[in-house]
């Protein structure tokens, strides 16, 4: 998301506990925040990502409740964002962790639409990438044929 959104001209902010922040993130085109409220200030879009609770055994944060308190998307985050900011999450969402249900179901949430369209969008991207690769192959084959003909 960071690369594609920044290529599209978006200023990307990432908020996560230091223990969950990939080392290479500082080198990517984004602003790294360790405070979700700082990350939400004045934004057009707030996008949560699923916390992989199955990895919580490695103690990346003290507790799920603490994560939800410090990094969950809540009403304060919405207040800090632009008044027409939308809420996104690719799913599945751990209600009460990444955000409470009232945020997930908020009138500014487009999560249901995002999830519903996710498979079709990924299929379209793969189709376009494959079409580009096939076009490049065809162009190379044509150049080889032309080269062979000019050698004769």
Description:
The protein is mainly alpha-helical and 152 residues long. The protein folds into two domains: 2-109, Rossmann fold (3-Layer(aba) Sandwich); 112-152. It contains six helices and four strands, in the order H-E-E-H-E-H-H-E-H-H. It has helices spanning 2-7, 36-40, 64-71, 75-80, 101-104, 111-151; strands at residues 13-15, 31-33, 45-47, 86-88. Strands 1-2 form a two-stranded parallel sheet. The longest helix has 41 residues, at 111-151. The radius of gyration is 21 Å and the shape is elongated. The N and C termini lie far apart (50 Å).
Query: What is the overall shape?
Result: elongated
Report the CATH C-level class of the largest domain.
Alpha Beta
- Secondary-structure element pattern, one letter each: HEEHEHHEHH
Structural class: mainly alpha
- Count of helix runs: 6
Classify the beta-strand content into a percent band.
5-15%
Residue windows where pLDDT falls under 50 for at least 5 positions: none
Rg calculated over all Cα atoms: 21 Å
- Can you tell me the CATH superfamily of the largest domain? Aspartate/ornithine carbamoyltransferase
Our count of domains comes out at 2
Helix content percent band: 40-55%
CATH architecture of the largest domain: 3-Layer(aba) Sandwich
Query: Overall pLDDT, averaged?
Result: 90
CATH topology of the largest domain: Rossmann fold
Described by strand count, sense and barrel closure, the largest sheet is: 2 strands, parallel
Strand order of the largest sheet: 1-2
Distance N to C terminus: 50 Å
């Amino acid at each position: 998301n960071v690369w594609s959104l920044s290529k599209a001209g978006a200023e990307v902010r990432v908020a996560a506990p230091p223990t969950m922040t990939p080392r290479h993130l500082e080198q990517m085109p984004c602003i790294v925040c360790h405070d979700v409220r700082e990350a939400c200030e004045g934004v057009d879009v707030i996008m949560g990502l699923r916390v992989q609770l199955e990895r919580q055994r490695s103690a990346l944060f003290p507790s799920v409740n603490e994560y939800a308190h410090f990094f969950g998307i809540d009403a304060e985050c919405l207040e800090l964002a632009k008044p027409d900011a939308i809420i996104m999450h690719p799913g599945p969402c751990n209600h009460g962790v990444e955000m409470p249900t009232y945020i997930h179901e908020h009138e500014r949430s487009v999560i249901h639409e995002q999830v519903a369209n996710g498979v079709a969008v990924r299929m379209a991207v793969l189709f376009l990438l494959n079409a580009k690769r096939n076009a490049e192959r065809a162009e190379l084959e044509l150049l080889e044929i032309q080269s062979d003909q000019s050698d004769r």
